[in-house]
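Posting this for the archive.
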Amino acid sequence: MSVVGIITALRMEASCVSSFRMPYNRIVRLAEGSVVWLSGMGDDAARSAATELLELGVTSLVSFGIAGALDPKLSSGDLILPESIHAGKIPQDDEEGLFSYPVSLEWRDRVEALLPPHLTIVGGTLTTSPGVLASAKAKLELGAVTGACAYDMESAAIAEVAAKYEAPFIAIRAITNPVDFSPPAELLHAIQPEGSIKILHLLSLLYQGSVDVATLLHLGKEIREARRTLATVIRKADKELGEMPRTVTVT
């Protein structure tokens, strides 16, 4: 039986899949054909989740969530359905190795065919970064050396595991941070691994002036636009993602 494993790093990404409040770092079975794992941010967490899902019998993997733009033409809410995943490592002249991972292009194309025409959908390459890029300069530089149009912190690790197990893989990522907008680096310290906010820490940053309300409002707008896109994918392409149900069970 085919079972799709959807891996999200952040709780707000998981909420686009189901209104059920996903537990952190546990499998949630949505239906016979789909499970979700809220892994937390970063490649180690994503790699661990992908490995366990495949060892438990999941047959294909989806990296689902938000991404940062490396191409100035991309805007918040644009959908990235990459055709390849850059591994994040830049090879030296005398170095050999695998620096990109495959995407199931047939599966990717079936998802795209189900989506409404109002969505801006971009293919190309998705790369990885160990952290959120805090400047336009850093984003443009990463795009230049990798040839990627966007980046996240988990897809390369999930793609690596999928390639190892010879399991089909796709990434579904919506842009939140275009090239010309980046959240302050200090703000990241107020965020738990799965995306929950440390309220007291955030209030301290606001009091100190390290983060201002205007920036938070802008970031909130960016996230809402990305969430609308991700929710649209779930509604319209659910049959390619294991048939999204109305109820869930936790295992």
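The domain at 4-183+226-250 is CATH 3.40.50.1580 (Rossmann fold). The radius of gyration is 17 Å.
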